Amino acid sequence: MPLLKVEKMNGFYGDIQVLFDISININENEVVSIIGANGAGKSTLLKIISGLMKPKSGIIEFNGERIDTFDSHKIVDKGIVQIPEGRKLFPLLTVKENLEVGAHVTRANKLIQDSLQEVYQLFPILKEREDQLARTLSGGEQQMLAIARGLMAKPCILMFDEPSLGLAPLLVKNVFETIMTIKKQGITVLLVEQNVHHALDLCDRGYVLENGRIVLEGNGKELLTNPEVKRAYLGI
Which residues on adjacent β-strands are paired with residue 4? Predict the structure, then answer.
């Protein structure tokens, strides 16, 4: 049984349909990438899984339990956590306070001190900066903080929305290395990313989303060598 199952899900903004009969499966301890152009519906898909938007129709199941009617806070408490595009930190809170906010859910609240030590081990610079305001961090440090805040919620599935956006190439490489480290810790990853080569190179499986529809799926290496993917997304 998949850890997360989305079946024939349709999503709308008002009267405008943006997702059409989306069906994806994510197995435990996989990295699954969703690739596609701007406006394809990738972020909308994550918002619906997170409970920030409600699907018009379809089914979303997590660990065999239907969750598409749940509010977002309940979905986080189940263990599905999103790292939003643009990081969405609390700029006037310190690094440590941002991290503590990440652990406010029931499943994580009693483990704050242990979780802090774990994320500081993964991102030592955050320990050095723990008393600084989030807005004073560099772009790369802010992305580290956003990922660490998500980890504080003790996720079963960590969903990334464009984690490499706006970062220098070396920092992009660090972000994807961090995602692989997170997988090794036993956390399942759903990755939405426009950096197609990186996203498919590290994932176990991937889906290609075009105009709100899944048009291709397969393992990462297969998709990297697919002629349509190479033409449309890799410029080959």
Answer: 26, 62
